[in-house]
Design goal:
Strand order of the largest sheet: 3-5-6
Strand content: 25-35%
Radius of gyration: 21 Å
Number of helices: 1
Distance between the termini: 57 Å
Number of strands: 12
Oligomer: single chain
Helix content: under 10%
Largest sheet: 3 strands, antiparallel
Order of helices and strands: EEEEHEEEEEEEE
């Protein structure tokens, strides 16, 4: 009916997994999307996955090397591991601009290496941190914006992204 949006499906939606890019000013879809009659729910996620297999159980994994650099065609390890999801529900063409507040579905862990009282010298620039025994794969429910551990992902070590030397309350940290 015209008052209830249809549920998100793998296909048969008004727009199915359309990639949208941002140029710093405007968002541009890869093809024109037309409003239909009645109400629609709009979903968004990032980073883009070209082939969605299941809207309620989509596989996603984080990079085991968060320091991998990106380029103009590929996201770096850290950015590619941050899954964002948003939904705006019950909208019509007359509602105007659609605001899609996004939420982070993956966790962020920050580790600070701080020199202790008895440490002499400065912290090494090449210090690295690895996080061991971490499940890197999840299954995401794109309809609800929730996730669960992938039962077949196994555990891996993650080389954490180096943010550089910083100062916290006058104390140097890596």
């Amino acid at each position: 009916d015209d008052t209830t949006p249809l549920p998100l499906q793998i296909s048969g939606n008004r727009a199915n997994n359309v990639e949208v890019t941002f140029d710093g000013v405007n968002w541009t879809p890869e093809r024109t999307i037309w409003w239909g009659e009645g109400k629609s729910d709009i979903y968004a996620y990032y980073p883009y996955i070209s082939q969605i297999e299941d809207v309620e159980y989509q596989y996603f994994s984080i990079s085991t090397d968060q320091n991998l650099p990106g380029d103009e065609n590929t996201l770096g390890g850290y950015e590619a591991s941050d899954f964002l999801w948003g939904k705006a529900g019950g909208l019509t063409a007359s509602d105007g601009t659609v605001n899609l507040p996004m939420k982070h579905l993956m966790s962020k862990l920050t580790v600070k290496i701080v020199a202790g009282e008895d440490y002499v010298g400065s912290l090494p620039d090449d210090a690295t941190v690895e996080l061991h025994s971490t499940v890197t794969g999840v299954r995401i429910d794109l309809t609800k914006g929730s996730l669960s551990k992938d039962p077949y992902s196994g555990v891996h070590s993650i080389k954490m992204k180096k943010l550089g030397i910083r100062s916290y309350n006058g104390v140097e940290a890596v």
